[in-house]
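Quick illustration for those who missed Monday's session on complexes.
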Amino acid sequence: MEKIVLTGDRPTGKLHLGHYVGSLRRRVELQNSGEFDKIFIMIADAQALTDNADNPEKIRQNIIEVALDYLSVGLDPEKSTLFIQSMVPELTELSFYYMNLVTVSRLQRNPTVKSEIQLRNFETSIPVGFFTYPISQAADITAFKATVVPVGEDQKPMLEQTKEIVHKFNSVYGDTLVDPQILLPENETCMRLPGTDGKAKMSKSLGNCIYLSDSEEDVRKKVMSMFTDPNHIRVQDPGSLEGNTVFIYLDAFCKDEHFAEFLPEYKNLDELKEHYQRGGLGDVKVKKFLNKVLQSELAPIRARRKEYEANIPYVYEVLKKGCEVAEKEAAATLRDVREAMKINYFEDKALIQEQIERFK
Ligand code: ATP
Ligand code: MG
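Prediction with adenosine-5'-triphosphate bound:
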């Protein structure tokens, strides 16, 4: 069986460090491993419209931002198909068929959708499209016969829903769809990177992000004003690592080499943590170190972005080509699905013959 990756992002803003550690970094590794037959990276504009129906301009503007972020982190259009969801109408058709295989109460149980409804204050006015987006995600994944889906932890319920749809479809209509595997980040802190304000998730919708495209000065300012241990007032006080955002970010980004380069008095993160907990290590020093670590990761991304920003027509060309490739792929799956569901009336020669006999 072919090894196929599918994943994506909503064009509701620029991409941030949460996306980077949760999924982007992994995608680039998978792409460059050479182990995959096909890699599809989707800008989920149709999904973004489910809770931004009144703001299409926001989605339209952010398509190019996300595409620039993709190229600047190292996604390579020669190796990965970068495309826009709404340009592949087969995905909508597939969602429509899957809706028959999922109950309303099953959707209501989805914990991520539940918390997103709360976050958006939808209360009793939940758009139907938003409520059903886990179904459309199942369509996205299965249309490309994805075997591996690299995402952050908040996507776990979506993958479970997708697997249920695959199993149900295959048991009702015969073996047609591929059962996908979720690929979560290896590092616990990367599953769900908190915001700079210490809130549970760095999220475009919460405004607590460090963006991949932030300037050097913006990153520095955001790091220096980050949430730490509120009880760590004087340098000599013992500090706590619990919920300490600066240390959580170090867990996600720092390698031993960073110590040799930027803070040689410590061998590794364990030594730094130990000193912080013992007392005698100030927040400012740790923040300055984190800033250096982040800048060293972000500088090459920023530089590549500048190059692509100077060549916007190329970026649109990449997306357009990607959409064509993606549509072909999804159309092939749709043919299989229609055949399995017995709705391929004009391709089924046996059916026509059967009807001729019947009406003789
Ligand atoms: P929105 O607020 O519009 O939902 P978002 O910031 O949650 O935006 P998405 O486009 O929904 O971003 O998510 C894209 C991918 O990035 C998903 O795989 C998701 O799991 C991952 N991701 C998003 N935020 C984080 C985070 N803070 N930590 C780890 N992974 C994340
Ligand atoms: Mg999200």
